[in-house]
Each structure stands twice: as C-alpha cells, then as structure tokens.
Automatic annotation (TrEMBL):
Domain of life: Bacteria
Species in which this protein is naturally found: Streptomyces albipurpureus
The protein's name: Uncharacterized protein
C-alpha cells in the first residue's frame, strides 16, 4: 500500500522503487513525517516523501491522506534539520518569528497563529521581511517591491481579513514531523517544488495550530512589508495588526495546501 511517485522513482532509481513497492525496504510501522502520528504500510496507503539537499537525500514516509508522494528540494542545512526530526533527534524550540532566507532577497520573519473567520479557526502564517525587498536587478533604487512581487506570483490584496483568500496554484506549506519547515513554490523548470522560505531550524507550532491545519488541509499565508505587522505577543494583537495593514492596503494573502504540489 505504498505510493512512489514518478518524481521519487526518478531520484531513487527503478530498482530501489521496486524493492519498496515489493515491501523489501518498506518500514512497516512509521511516524508520519507530516502529522507525527503512527502509520503502518501494511494497513493504510502510505506516501514516500524524498527530501533532497545539495549532498544528502532522506526518504521519509507519511499517510497518503496527509501528503502525496513527492520530492521536496531543500537547502542542505535545512535537510539536516529534517534528518534530526525524522530520526527523532528533536531540535530545540525556535522562538517566533522564525527567520528564513528568500533566495536572492532579504531575510523574512514568519509567525504562525490561528485566525478566526466566520466562526472557524484557520491556521495562518504571517510573513514580514526585516527590511525592504528590492526587485531583482533593481539594486533597491525603486523602494520596497515586496508586495508587488508577491502579487505577480498570484497573491491577492486583502481588504477584509474576515474573507479567506483563494488558493494559490502550485504553492504549499511543508509540515514535517509536526513542525514547520518551508513554504514551497513551483520551480521555473516545472519540476519538483522549491523553497520560497525555509526555517533555519524547524519551527515549532502549537497543538491547536497543528490540529487546525490537519482539519482544513490548508494554511492561510498573509504577507506585509517591513513594519506593517511587527512582533505581536498574542493572536488577538496579531489579528488587529493584520486588520490595520489591510485597511492601509499593505496586506496580501493566499491559501496553500499542506505540502501539496
């Protein structure tokens, strides 16, 4: 009952893929790399998830109902964090906001929280750079292009936080071993998704956030330019900051599936 996608097969080779499907190298019981609960390859459909870095590749397993079989390309340093998580060597908690690097751009802060919309709690991520984001090649002479760049990628301006954003095709949020690892975007070449944002260490999220994301199967990702949100100690204050940013035309958002492609 093991799923091996064509992308995973291409990376590990036909021989290894066939041995997995025949049960020779299947783990039997495992901890789902997404929801952290036990799984059994003999009892339920299971996805193979291959994390690929510059020099290292790690094959993990997940409930097929959590995430599909896929290849996830990550930086080598990020993969080491995934290795520690997959092998049970948990890294210490990372204070929010976690900081990652967008390739060729600036440092991004990412904070997780629950947003109340129409009476339901939605898992959300709030992305805010630590400084202005210049358009590649512009050298920063035209100011902060963070929101225009995201709108070009398909993010939508938010005028009312009470209305959930539409889903952004091809983007997803990677949750491995119950911790936040990356926000993925489609690659230019149309192959496996690549990281738009990566945590330096896997970001610990609350049980409530994790429960909400596994219920909804999607994450609402809000983004604002530097200084628009700030570090808010409570979710009600985070919500107030989002509403003020939206009222000022400084907020964009998109809904993303959990580790989907």
């Amino acid at each position: 009952m093991l799923d091996v996608s064509e992308d995973v097969r291409a990376e590990i080779g036909d021989q290894e893929a066939d041995r997995l499907l025949a049960g020779e190298n299947a783990p039997g019981s495992y901890d789902c790399t997404s929801c952290r609960t036990p799984g059994d390859t003999g009892q339920e459909r299971t996805s193979t998830v291959l994390f690929v870095g510059e020099e290292t590749a790690v094959l993990a397993f997940a409930h097929a109902t959590c995430i599909p079989s896929q290849v996830v390309q990550v930086a080598e340093s990020e993969l080491q964090g995934a290795v520690r998580s997959i092998t049970g060597e948990e890294p210490g908690p990372v204070p929010a906001p976690a900081v990652g690097t967008a390739p060729g751009q600036a440092v991004l802060g990412v904070t997780s929280g629950l947003i109340l919309i129409d009476g339901d709690l939605h898992p959300a991520l709030v992305v805010e750079p630590t400084g202005p984001i210049a358009r590649p090649g512009s050298l920063g002479e035209y100011g902060d292009d963070f929101l225009p760049l995201l709108i070009e990628q398909g993010f939508q301006p938010v005028h009312d936080v009470n209305k959930p954003p539409s889903q952004l095709q091809g983007w997803s949020v990677l949750l491995a071993m119950g911790q936040l690892h990356a926000v993925l975007q489609p690659s230019i070449a149309g192959t496996s998704p690549v990281a738009w944002w990566q945590a330096h260490q896997p970001l610990v999220v609350t049980e409530g956030w994790r429960a909400a994301v596994h219920k909804s199967r999607r994450v609402l990702v809000f983004a604002a330019p530097v200084g628009a949100i700030g570090q808010q100690p409570r979710e009600d204050l985070l919500r107030d900051a989002l509403e003020k940013a939206a009222a000022s035309g400084l907020l964009v958002a998109a809904a993303m599936p959990l580790a989907g492609t």
